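Ticket #4471: structure output looks truncated?

Reporter: J.K.
Steps to reproduce: submitted the chain below (451 residues) through the standard prediction queue, then opened the result file.
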Amino acid sequence: MTEVTFSGLGLADPLLKALAAEKYTHPTPIQAQAIPLLLEGRDLFGLAQTGTGKTAAFTLPLLQRLNKNQKAPGRNGVRALILAPTRELAVQIGDSIRAYSQFVAIRHTVITGGVPQGRQVKAMSRGVDILVATPGRLLDLVNQRHVDLHSAQTFILDEGDRMFDMGFIRDIRKIVQMLPRERHTMLFSATMPREIEKLAREILNDPAKIEVTPEVITVDRIKQHVFHVQGSRKRDLLHELMADPALSRVIVFTRTKHGANRLADQLVKSGVNADAIHGNKSQGARQRALNDFKDNRSRVLVATDIASRGIDVDDVSHVINFDLPMEAESYVHRIGRTARAGAGGIAISFCDPAEKKYLRDIERLLKRPIDTAENPLGAANDSELRERRDHDQDRDEPRRKPHRGQPAGKKYRARKPEGNKTAGGGGAKQQNGPAKPGGDKPFRRSRPRAA
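Returned output as attached by the reporter:
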């Protein structure tokens, strides 16, 4: 069987030279399938995860087509637009374009939120061949007339399902309306929810469809373990695991931004170099945290799901789900930060009894159970935790919401209905004052009288 090479895909010499400089010799499956189709000018719908090489799959043919048909973009103009859902992914796409275009005359820039727009406005003033952008900042600059999309020949939408998850679908439709009808369009997504399928029909013209590396097959290269542990002991368990030097480069996922900050601070106090990355941090802080992690100045990167598809770092030894994600698909994207480019990896998840539903959903998606690991803290196993939780619920069952004046958290007897009581009737002790005129229900004083 003939081995596929980049030169056999029809790429020009300057691009082959750049690939050789980056030590890339053989295309990944999506590159081998997509590059010839895109060089022909076909629209493309690609189903592929981050880490499969899809950035090069759309960047290389884009560079070749733009270099072959040199044309000035005009003031504030754009010849090709690439949309990404997160700042990190946009920056990484920009880095890839810089590497692949080192021997061709192509000008590109990246515009994202989280940083002052001055430099971005200046970069756009002469126009660019390729603009990589996040939707929010792009619309801001378009509305300020610093970006003109009317001359864009190519439109690439990356991580379409992530765009939908982050609420960018309306922004994308606004942006598409600003683009020429006649254009070369590509849409890439790791999954295909109904909204993405609908969007593909709207923006693509007779597209070729490529589907590579289904999610479940990808995670088969990753050793997966779950620790059943109470939420209050998760931090202790993490510190215990971090004592193992085999956890050399670790991404820890939390559910909230505040939780990411707090956990990173606690790791630093325990002597572990760590930093947090999430949406509330400035772009500069996020990029510094990512660079420190890439350069091994930080051993642990604590992240929220915004980073689950935006971090492309080689040799991540472990991914730890400190909090299980509420969506099973997010689990696959998270653990995909390890086992990059065909390598193996290890994924560890902490499961509190309240998170069992999320674990079942994940195992249903994977179509197999995740191996249970022995807790080094000697914590209760899952059945014991469940029995303890059920016991606590049974113990708390008699408690009801206290009425006004009743101390919270104390048991009390529910007050019997007083609707049939009249003043002095049946020898009952009257506490609420005389009955209302013309009725048999007592009225309640607004406050007790002073003694």
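Triage note (M.O.): checked the attachment and the full token line is present. The mean pLDDT is 82.
Status: closed, working as intended.
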